[in-house]
Amino acid sequence: MPTHHQGPPTEVRALDAFIKLVRAAGSVLAGANRPIAAHGLTVGQFGVLESLLHLGPLHQCDLARKHLQSGGNITMIVDNLEKAGLVRRERLAEDRRYVRVHLTDAGQERIEAVFPAHVQIIVERFAALTPAEQEELGRLCRKLGTGTAEEPTEVSDVIDALEIRTI
Fold first, then answer.
1. pLDDT tens digits, residue range 12-39?
2. pLDDT tens digits along 69-97
3. Which residues are CB-contacts of 157 (< 8 A; sequence separation ≥ 6)?
4. Element (H, E) at 151
């Protein structure tokens, strides 16, 4: 459903794209979040466990940055995961302000149980797009998320961009 806004074409186009993006994301997330909830986790808890599974122990401030969360929100998420026995905290001896978060064996078992179903649902939903469309969507989302207004258009800019990406 497009926007009903009657403004200039730039506003109508941007709002229409925004509505489609939000609805598509909501639809994909609704399905992808089902196995997370079925395993007794919130989306935030799942995100922390998934990060620790794939990246290893992380400082709590790095988890906050990675998940675009406030320090207070990550503290609450980690508190709840710790109470459930899924993570443990370790203060660094050299700087006690830094708290490193580790998966426990129970935490590793839980995330390894839920992650495959989560991935499968995402793969199934993205099957509506060709591999090239999935890559293009990823490129466009990155461009939108970073606020990069223009891609290189001069031949020399394209060559420079390719050299930077291959280093």
1. 888 888 899 999 999 998 888 999 999 9
2. 888 899 999 999 999 999 999 987 887 77
3. none
4. none
pTM of the entire structure?
Answer: 0.75
Tokens of 87: 């993570």
> In which element (H, E) is residue 87 found?
strand 87-91
**Domains detected in the chain:** 9-128 (1.10.10.10), 131-167 (no CATH)
CA distances, 121 to each of 28, 31, 46, 57, 109 (Å): 8, 7, 15, 27, 20
List b or e across 75-113, with b for residues whose CB sees 16 or more CB atoms inside 10 angstroms. bebbebbeeeebbeeeeeeeeeeebbbebbeebbebbee
